[in-house]
Amino acid sequence: MKLRYIFLFLFVILNKQLANAQSEQGTVSGRIVNIDQLPVSGASVTFRNTTLGTSTNEDGEFTLSGITPGSYVLTVSNIGYTAHTQSLRITKGKNAYLSLQLSESKQELKEVVITTSKNRYQVLASGTSTRLNTPLLSTPQSVQVLGSQVLKDRQAFTLNEIAGTFTGMKANNGNGSFQMRGFTAYSPNDASFLLYNGIRGNLFLWSQQPLLYNVESVELLRGPSGALFSEGSPGGVVNFITKQPLPEKRASIDLSLGSWAFRRASVDFTGPLTQNKKLLYRAIVGYDRSKSFRDDQDKQNLFIAPSLTYLVNGNTSLNLEVNYAYQKAVHQYDNGSYIYSRPDGTFDFNYYPNHLTIQSPTDYGKTHNASATLSFNHQVSQNLKLAVVQRAVRNTLDYTDHIPVGRIRNDSISRGYQDWETDRFSLQTTAYATYTAKTGLLGHQIVAGIDYNRYGWTKNDYQYKGSTRISILNPDYTGSIPDASIPADESDDNKRITNLIGGYIQDQVSVGEKLKVLLSLRYDSYSGKETPLSDRDGKQGDELEASGWIPRVGVVYLPVKNVSVYGSYLKSFNPQTSNNILSGGPFPTRQSTQYEIGSKADLIDNRLSASLSLYQINYANILTAAPTEENSHRQAAIDGTRSRGTEFSLTGNLKGLNLIAGYAFNEHVLVSTSSYGKKGDRFANAPKHQVNFWGKYTLTSGILKGLGAAAGMRYVSNQVGLLSNQNFIFPEYTVFDAALSYHRNRYVIQVNAYNLTNKHYFTGSRSGMTTAGLGDPFNVRIGISYQIW
């Protein structure tokens, strides 16, 4: 009955907008590029003596709507360029698309052509991989960027929901665990695999799905990226580009409803706070609440993100961004769904209904996540730029949880009870300078910087106790919370402080127009100490001292203007999470080394981008249990693993069709035999084959102009769920999605359907064979967006 009223509401709105299709106002759109045909992002585009204005996105594109027909003076300005003006006439109902070229030397704009506006999927440049605004074509690393339009078309509200749109990436479960190039990136071990505007400091804890309320685009930098960002997952890092204040007044509201009582609302306000438009603001507020297809689950998020930008002058700017995220959930962790073990040692992944859960209705989780980032950018001269960033993050968690203990017997399972409170922080200071110079025939783009990161926790109060055994099919949760007087079986009560000091220098050398060489060298030094806060702590303290050099070498050759071939050598190291002397420490650092070759091409008048890469990653010094008669807790560092693979991706915009497609092959295995496993064993949660596709076609003319239809699929081959049992293999799966949307004037109405065939599939495991991450069954979302002004 509720769906009937929802569709009636949508029908009324659609008819209202069709009736208003013949607007008396005009719209102007365009794209700004520099002399090298690279997009100029963040440029201010305004009409003189009016309140109309906007700025270009990461693709250099802009749109201004609701313009009264007449003659105007268009003004375009950006840091590093002299403001340019030109006359422009707006005609009733006409959507003009201006392709403009900005010359850095002459600092002037020239109108080129008029064509049709597009919401592009294709992104041609990224500044994160090299800290330079380098075209992806000339970047000696596999980088993929999903822009804001992809996030909107997918109705993706968390990183987990967009992970499968990247080639070769997947979410392992409903928490913050992801697979990239065969490696699992998970916050407790890879604290910096999530970056914000290229700066360390993950806003969200590992028990959460990172939210996208204030995210403009998401970048995946594949492989170890230690030369610029220090430690991280060997498989890659994910960078969030956040929404920044704009120089024109703009406001929007988004509403969504969906399956399992999902509801979401957000507002986004931005514009100038002063008449001269030097002080800009942005305020984003979001709230969502939902249940689940599993029993007794309820989750709600509140997100607030205010930010300010002060344009001191054309060369200098200050930006302050504050984020606050509060989550309250019945089940903080997603402990997955049950898997039946047959007597012969095989597994039945379809035996138990998907609504069952190991957790109790009394479990809960509360997190408070806050961050503040202050950025200073200054153009010292035409060739020299300076950036200083200070980022502070604090996370507090209070949760209780039930986990499986042992194996399922007679459709019943023993459980353990966890009670945890923790208070974590990260203080990151980054300063770097970029300098452009020329020595003879060689051009240089030099980046030199220093990092200081102080991070850890001031509280880590954890207790584990045994709990009740329950019938899986008919659970009775009576007495599932152990009495407080019962001593804990395991306990932590400590604090830990780690200091990281790093410095790096990078030179991107251009030899003519066809050859570029990237040389980077970084030095990192870690020092840390874990201190017990009471006699309850079971770790007895720990200390960390580690340092090392991290090199990077990349070569790019462009035989023709739109095609490149590249090769790179990347390296990173991660300090051990344990160096306890009682366990045999200190241990050598975990090190990853990647060799990669590939090719990229921008085809069909730069409307289609293709990328092919082949790589090998060697990962050494993984800790594993190595007990002796004298020391049952002894650990040892082993040779590690080897990940090999290839990736192919396509992104483009072809006559109303936006598409993203890709194929990834990966083989991640152990290279030696130890207590960790046998040589050749497959690594957990690392499928050999992954295929992704998402395409959207939008009508650009006629009475149905603005109507869009989209479809997509994800294929993941079988994967080992636990390294210690190579017979525990999750079956392959294919998931199909689809969407319909209608864009008219200031409204966007959209319906997304996910997992159209209601496929029952497991995405990955955590640490056992009793439960695992289960993919969402068929579900629907309806969204309405309205541009207030």
From TrEMBL:
Ranges of residues in domain TonB-dependent receptor plug: 136-237
Cleavable signal peptide: 1-21
Ranges for domain TonB-dependent receptor-like beta-barrel: 315-756
UniProt cross-references to InterPro entries, sorted A to Z: Beta-barrel_TonB, Beta-barrel_TonB_sf, Carb-bd-like_fold, Plug_dom, Plug_dom_sf, TonB-dep_rcpt-like, TonB_sidphr_rcpt
Membrane is among the record's keywords: yes
Cited Pfam families: CarbopepD_reg_2, Plug, TonB_dep_Rec_b-barrel
GO MF entry, a single one: siderophore uptake transmembrane transporter activity
Protein's UniProt keywords contain Coiled coil: no
Membrane topology summary: Multi-pass membrane protein
GO-annotated biological processes: siderophore transport
GO CC aspect terms: cell outer membrane
Keywords annotated in UniProt: Cell outer membrane, Ion transport, Iron, Iron transport, Membrane, Receptor, Signal, TonB box, Transmembrane, Transmembrane beta strand, Transport
PROSITE patterns (UniProt xref): TONB_DEPENDENT_REC_3 (PS52016)
SUPFAM superfamilies found in the cross-reference section: Porins, Starch-binding domain-like
PANTHER family recorded: FERRICHROME IRON RECEPTOR-RELATED, FERRICHROME OUTER MEMBRANE TRANSPORTER_PHAGE RECEPTOR
UniProt family annotation: Belongs to the TonB-dependent receptor family.
Name this polypeptide is given: TonB-dependent siderophore receptor
